[in-house]
Amino acid sequence: MDRSAFSFAFQPIVHAPSGRVWSHEALIRGPAGEPAGQVLSGLDEPALYRLDANGRGRAIDLAVRLGLQGRLNLNFLPRSLGEDDEVLEAMFLAAQRHGLPLERLVLEVTESEAIGDLAGFAQRMRRIRALGLQLAIDDFGAGHCGLNLLAEFQPDLLKLDMALLRGIERSGPRQAIVRAVLGACLDLGIDAVAEGVETLEEYRWLAGEGVELFQGYLFGRPGFEALPAPRLLHMPA
Predict the structure, then answer these.
(1) Any domain includes 11
(2) Helices (H), the chain
(3) Is residue 13 part of a domain?
(4) What b/e sequence results for 141-175 when a residue is b if at least 16 CB atoms lie within 10 Å of its CB, and e otherwise?
(5) What is the DSSP string of 83-135?
(6) The pLDDT value given to residue 172
(7) Over the range 187-201, which residues count as b (16 or more CB within 10 Å of their CB) and which as e?
(8) What is the mean pLDDT of the chain?
(9) What's the sign of the alpha-carbon dihedral 145, 84, 96, 131?
């Protein structure tokens, strides 16, 4: 596979009380739908960051061609944003080309990737947010810098890691941790997203704790070069 050629799948993020798609997350795939690991394996760091820098503009192009109506979540590697605004240029130009307001773009930073200078990163993120974009911490609970990152920088969204949520209806310790995180989100004005939700039992427990935004196979698998609708609507808690 030519690793310079890639495309995207899109997975819905659902507002469960209404059953509507809140956003779609763009997930990198190979040109024939190959998984992200296959696309990224073997790339050295410069190639990885070139792909990261160019991918967001291409994801916007594809999503709009497919008929995107709502928000679009885009992943990025923290170090790729540095201090050089040219890294954001392709994304901004793509959004402008399609008349897509920046307010409908959500940039996700993966909590599990170490960020050396948290204060500097937080300052950079505040500059980007001032342009109108929303910001999210992805995979919260999977890495070692999540609480420190949250202390320095309060995102618009916090996406709870799927490993933390797996079988949560049966795990008292996980329930205590998630309740504490949700309480912090409420105090800080941050919306929580439950990632990787696969069962009705997981959904019901999380919905009972006030979570409204969900992403996972229960609600819809990623669609290769497609914007899938939610699989289940208006599910009772």
Answers:
(1) yes
(2) 36-40, 45-65, 78-81, 86-97, 118-129, 146-152, 162-165, 172-188, 200-208
(3) yes
(4) bbbebbeebbebbbbebbbbbbebbeebbeeeebe
(5) S-THHHHHHHHHHHHTT--GGGEEEEEETTS--S-HHHHHHHHHHHHTTT-EE
(6) 96
(7) eeebbbbbbbbebee
(8) 87
(9) positive
Residue 234, in any domain of the structure: no
| pLDDT tens, position by position, 67-77 | 999 999 999 87
pTM of the model: 0.91
Q: What is the CATH number of the domain that holds 76?
A: 3.20.20.450
Number of domains the chain contains: 1
Long-range contacts of 39-48 (CB under 8 A, 24+ apart): 39/1, 39/3, 39/6, 40/3, 42/3, 43/3, 47/3, 48/77
For residue 28, the enclosing domain spans 7-224
